[in-house]
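Sequence in, structure out. Go.
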Amino acid sequence: MTLPGNLKTLSPLPKPYRSDPATAEAPGFPKVEGETIPRRNAKCKDALKTQPVPEIATAHDVIGYSANKFGNAVAVGSRKLIKMHNETKKVKKMVDGKETMVDKSWQYSELSGYTYMSFVEFERLALQIGRGLRKLGMEPQDKTHLFAATQ
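Output:
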């Protein structure tokens, strides 16, 4: 069976989604021989964006903005620890040039299914934590470090 015409005309070729450039040369940088002028997103070529929208300047603003914009949509999920499992197995290991069997311990966690919190619920929780920190004596310019282990 022979196909009529050219294969390029039978199947459409991919077309760019936009014709405008995605990046532009950043103004104010001198031309250096052998180097290109730094480039930025074409939508903010004159200056770097410091805020996603004018109303957002702090983490508190991000949470409030998200709660207003996304409401009851799912924001975050978490799982509870059901049980930590410890397992010991014999594995081959080179000891003094000889292959020997040694015990190796593994630890893994059994977790529940995910439970989700909406943007509004997450905002409420963040505000409660903030009020708790204020009640403990923290002031607006104080700093804290939150740490959470992940796997």
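Check: Helices lie at 7-10, 59-70, 119-135. The chain has a mean pLDDT of 87.
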